[in-house]
Amino acid sequence: MIEFRRHILDNGLKIIVHEDKSTPLAAVSLLYLVGSRDENPQLTGLAHLFEHLMFRGSENIPDFDDQLQAAGGENNAFTNSDITNFYLTIPAVNLETAFWLEADRMKKLNLTEDSLENQKMVVLEEYRQSYINQPYGDATLLLRPLAFKVHPYRWHTIGEELHIKKVTLKDAKDFFYSHYGPDNCIMVVAGNVKTDEILRKAEKWFGKIRMRNIQSKQLPPEPPQQEERKLTVTKNVPADAIFKAWHICGRNETDFRNLDLLTDILAGGESGRLYTTLVRDKKMFSYINAYLTGDMDPGLLIIQGRLMNGVNYDVAEREIDNILKEIQEKMIEDNEMQKVKNKFETDFVTGMVNILNKAVNLSQYEMMGDAGFINREIENYLGVTAEMIIKSALKYLKNNNCSTLYYKSLNSN
Amino acid sequence: MSQEKSIKPEIIPVTLEQIQDVKISSLSNNVPVYLVDGGNEDILKIDFIFRAGLTNEELPLQSSATVQMLTEGSESMSADEIKRQLDYYGITFAPSFERDYACISLIFLNKYIQEALGLCSEIIFRPRFPEEELKALMNRKLQWFLIDRERVSTLATEHFFESIFGKNHPYGARINKEDFTRITPYNLRDFHSKNYTPSSLSIIVSGKIHPDTVKLLDNTIGKIIFKAIEKKRSPQLPYSETTKKTDITRKEAVQSALRIGMQTIRRTNPEFPALQIVNTLLGGYFGSRLMKNLREIKGYTYSISSYLVSLELSGYIMIATEVGKKHKSGALNEIIKEIKILQKKPVQESELQMLRNYMMSDLVRMFDGPFATAESFRTVWESGLDFNYYLKLADKIRTITPDEIIHIARTYYNIDDLYVITAG
């Protein structure tokens, strides 16, 4: 049981405090409800670029990282389609330094042409390192616009190179004031702290920041897909690969858990059905995986794999289809259900060992509606039945709901 | 509101005063067991560490293939059964290999300890190494290998180790395509019988330890007896190749990978703690000189790091980064420039203070919880040291002077001795 207290400041900042006296550290997670979904389609990548700019100086503090490190802190951040999450750990005795830093940059940034140009270069190198200079690195960049035609999930969080290059200082400033602010943020403090003292200090540092009245944007829902979509690319990679994506439900719907366990039945560990059949027994794939993208709005279930040399796409795809059909047509046995539940429980419990993970998880559950979900998650997963999984599989894993990317090797023919 | 002064809170320096003791026990077959108790969750991690790394190989891939083939079938279980059982009890079974050691790390809920230990003694000590499974694994590994070789970072790293440790030494020798088809079940059985013995094994247990944990270990792993078989002798000390600069061209690459460094002292050397501090100052944390210059000022790269690693027979330092192709020579110049500055200009008090506070807190993080503590233990244990090393390091972090930093930079970062490998 993870105990916590929730408090909301007058300016809308939600604060969650969890005490854990077994560590000398404190962890802080600030989750801003802004992601690439909030971008202008002509200016993709701005949310992520902005995450970088958040470290380049605020009203009173020019050097966020130096100041944090001088207090023994360590931090990082990530951006996805839905959120931007900043997180840090610091010796609990110096927690107030983290508040001083986070409050100052929540209030006002000191953006300059120089820091904008510099971070554009850094982000473009990140783009090259992670997506271009990697075999298959651009597959998800190609898959998203194939699966989504309307919803902003159609572009990848990293954005387009040309868009990143043309971001102006004004774009950046506008983005800050329309998305960053206490009323669009969840802050979790976890670790060796006293709740009352934390709430007092939070009021002192964050209480005076003005509410920004941030409007949550109404996004156009993705219309139901009516036909199978396919895209083939040929690139200089050593083997053919395949990526299949089906539209699923949003993160908060009960189908999500069913589908999550379904991906474990398919590809969790080396006893997953896809692995056992296609990698080990039939030796058609060298690698295969299944996972959910985990977006708040309806996202994707993705199956991706690399074919062994000499295996052609038709055969490989038929084999994947057969395994999916088997799920939909036959009963899943009890011990297979028990297996994926046990695995879920171990992974969930292991994730709670680290104070930073706990803080980040609490902020994500709060975003989904209630930090207290964290204490019911295991129970919720244990309650999933074979019938529920089969029903969800039947509902979503249909051909006219599927987009397939054939990522071909230049040498394969 | 904006007129209000934002008054910076006072920083309270943290110290590493004492470290939780590691309890030492041993099993009936004399396998040493190190115990790190703690944590809120009822889970356990067990590391089985065998002296069965690259230095014990008589053939390339022997070490990695042996540890990865353990789950592919044992005397009484098929690969299928093994994997289904491990997954059924939610046991994480993670094999890994390094230059000097091979390791199997288990993580499981304590309620399944009997099943976990029973399964693992079967998997680790009675493997069959079936031929068909080996062939399939090698085919898959070959594909990964070929994909990996598309990365400029792999090409540069591989050439770097070959250069600093010598192409005939296990630390530096590269793997070739042909090695994947050459290896046989016999090679693995031979390697296993020589190296997966109680006398080559040490165990680290961390997490919530119950009163009967060691007894349960003894009832399973403690019962394993092997005949002593003559092992391969330790190899000679590695020595570096003569060519120091290599540029591997990859026309289609959009970035260049840089690897710069050389062999260095081991952790047992009294100057190692100081070297660890200088390495952090140069490229070991986000506020480092290299990160500030090449990322935050020049924008040449997403990331740059300097590594300091101590091995059984040697140590090395390696600066690693991927930069935009057109910034390759600019980046090289800046890296060399930063090393020269370290060798000439005394570090300013404010920067040194930041480094001291950061490193001291980092030390505290290294002992935050049983898993982190166990990992920190393993690091020094592999060098034949104990937690006193960290107390010495803490002391050095507190007391190192700007002059000492210059001395260390001059002694261990001699520009003429650096190997400079670029790819892309």
String of helices and strands of chain B = EEEHHEEHHHHHEHEEHHEEHHHHHE
- The CATH homologous superfamily of the largest domain in chain B is called Metalloenzyme, LuxS/M16 peptidase-like
Morphology call of chain B: globular
Count of alpha and pi helical runs of chain A: 15
**If classified by CATH, what would the architecture of the largest domain in chain B be?**
2-Layer Sandwich
What do the pLDDT scores of chain A average to?
95
Helix content of chain A: 40-55%
CATH class of the largest domain in chain B: Alpha Beta
Taking the alpha carbons of the first and last residues of chain B, their distance comes to: 52 Å
Low-pLDDT regions of chain A: none
Low-pLDDT ranges of chain B: none
- What is the N-to-C succession of helices and strands of chain A? EEEHHEEHHHHHEHEEHHEEHHHHHE
Structural class of chain A: alpha+beta
Q: Beta-sheet strand percentage of chain B?
A: 15-25%
Please give the alpha-carbon distance between the first and last residues of chain A. Answer: 57 Å
Which characteristics define this entry?
heterodimer, A: 413 residues, B: 424 residues, alpha+beta, Cytochrome Bc1 Complex, Chain A, domain 1, 2 domains, 6-stranded mixed β-sheet, 5-stranded mixed β-sheet, 15 helices, 42% helix
How does the SSE layout of this entry go?
The complex is a heterodimer of chains A (413) and B (424).
Chain A: E1 5-8, E2 14-19, E3 25-32, H1 46-53, H2 64-70, E4 74-79, E5 84-91, H3 95-107, H4 113-132, H5 139-147, H6 161-166, H7 169-179, E6 185-191, H8 195-206, E7 229-235, E8 241-247, H9 254-267, H10 273-281, E9 285-292, E10 300-307, H11 313-329, H12 334-351, H13 355-367, H14 377-382, H15 386-396, E11 402-409
Parallel strand pairs in A: 2-6, 7-11
Antiparallel strand pairs in A: 1-2, 3-5, 3-6, 4-5, 8-10, 8-11, 9-10
Helix pairs in contact in A: 3-8, 9-15, 11-15
Chain B: E1 23-26, E2 32-37, E3 43-50, H1 62-69, H2 79-88, E4 92-97, E5 102-109, H3 113-125, H4 131-148, H5 152-165, H6 179-182, H7 185-195, E6 201-207, H8 213-220, E7 245-248, E8 255-264, H9 272-283, H10 289-297, E9 301-310, E10 315-324, H11 328-344, H12 349-366, H13 370-382, H14 388-399, H15 402-412, E11 419-423
Parallel strand pairs in B: 2-6, 7-11
Antiparallel strand pairs in B: 1-2, 3-5, 3-6, 4-5, 8-10, 8-11, 9-10
Helix pairs in contact in B: 1-7, 3-8, 9-14, 9-15, 10-11, 11-15, 12-14
